[in-house]
Amino acid sequence: MESKGGEAFASDRDTDRDTGTGTGADVVFVYRPTVGDFEEALRARALRTGAGRVQAMTGPVVSVGALAGFGLVVGMSAPVLVVALVVCAAVVSWGTLRALRTQARRMFSIVEPYGQCRMVADERGAVSSGERVSFTVEWAVHREYLETARLFVLLGGDRSAGIAVLPKRGAQGPEGVERLRGILDRNLTPLRRQRLP
Q: Which of 22, 93, 106, 122 has fewest C-beta within 10 Å?
């Protein structure tokens, strides 16, 4: 889980959450992050948030618009211009997808050294621990979340530019997914959900 603006390490007040001796409403996820988790999270963000759509569409729209303007100025014939625009849109869209994959690999490289992660969440926030680091994030660090078939994706608020990825495969059963969804619904703004299996 990537976070900015949270506490660097779990404090003494969070030891009850970390050991699972808290209120009984704690949810535990245990998982090993993958590059695919971050690719799916970035694709979902690009499709379902305004900022993500702007980031994903700026390159193709600007490129096609510039080529159309250039074609009109130099007097390209309509068939040549249409073919050029289609090729331009395809190439730039492919480049945008490659850029998302590169960004996902960079994000994964940050969390890969953590190894297997254990996240304990309650109404206050989440304590995450890996093989080399532990940290606490209060829900106020995030503004909203979205859900895919395999992930919960927490999107940064005013104090955080990053995202946090929580794979559902880390839940201790279907009830863990439901309980985490309930906690997130109460503390963050859920974005429109995809149809989930």
A: 106
